[in-house]
From TrEMBL:
Residues 193-224 are annotated as: Disordered. It comes from Fimbriiglobus ruber. Transmembrane segments: none annotated. InterPro entries: BaiN-like, FAD/NAD-bd_sf, RsdA/BaiN/AoA(So)_Rossmann. This is NAD(FAD)-utilizing dehydrogenase. Residues 32-197 form the RsdA/BaiN/AoA(So)-like Rossmann fold-like domain. Residues 193-218 have a biased composition (Low complexity).
Amino acid sequence: MAATIQFFLPPTGGKSLLGRSGGVGASMTDWDAVVVGAGAAGLMTAIHAAERGRRVLLLEKGRKPGVKILMSGGTRCNITHDCDNRGIIEAFGPNGKFLHSALAAFGVRDAIAFFEGEGVATKVEDTGKIFPVSDRALDVLNALLRRLERSGATLATSEPVREIVARPEGGFHLTTAVREVTTPHVVVTTGGRSYPAAARRATATPSPPSSATRSYRPGPRWCH
Ligand SMILES: Cc1cc2nc3c(=O)[nH]c(=O)nc-3n(C[C@H](O)[C@H](O)[C@H](O)COP(=O)(O)OP(=O)(O)OC[C@H]3O[C@@H](n4cnc5c(N)ncnc54)[C@H](O)[C@@H]3O)c2cc1C
């Protein structure tokens, strides 16, 4: 029996604002990977996968990507902290161990270099927090969107993913508000329900699996 993720979503149709390729009815071979949710995590995932030569489709439920980035750091966006990777892990507390591999792949200095490389000058404040010199979270988001565009990934907004099914023969089948997509790799970056203002504008949380499906727990098996 296939494992399924269903999403709680309003029954409104989505509008696809596709980039260079794909479209309603696009076939499974069009995308090497589909990333669900264009927040900070989804944008970075899509950028890095596309820069490695993957054909990436990034699906966003809301009309705009990166909404939560705009409200982060009191609209200034605290990009990272002036410390080494270990400092981040220690500051996280007892559960920080899970951050080791992520920070080894893309650490504090990489994050600063990434944004500086996109023209976002950064500053360290007395608290150790690192912000854009402009104090504008919008500059951080725009840097991500510029890089996304250069990477060749395709962003489709107003296109909520309603269901993801793991196919017995391999890969995944996704149903969005406007099309069906089959792809070998899916990364779910739909964030959490952490903040009402963000949730009102753009969010969705995977529903519990129906009784007809295998149980779903967010984890690496969805991030192939
Ligand atoms: C007020 C506030 C201030 C913050 N300040 C900072 C800060 O200064 N520095 C910092 O590092 N962090 C800060 N954070 C935390 C940071 O904003 C979040 O950790 C980060 O933005 C989460 O990114 P994400 O990509 O995981 O999730 P999200 O930003 O939530 O993105 C998930 C995306 O998935 C989309 N989505 C959901 N369901 C579906 C679906 N079914 N189909 C398609 N798309 C879907 C949503 O619309 C959304 O765009 C702050 C958070 C808040 C709320």
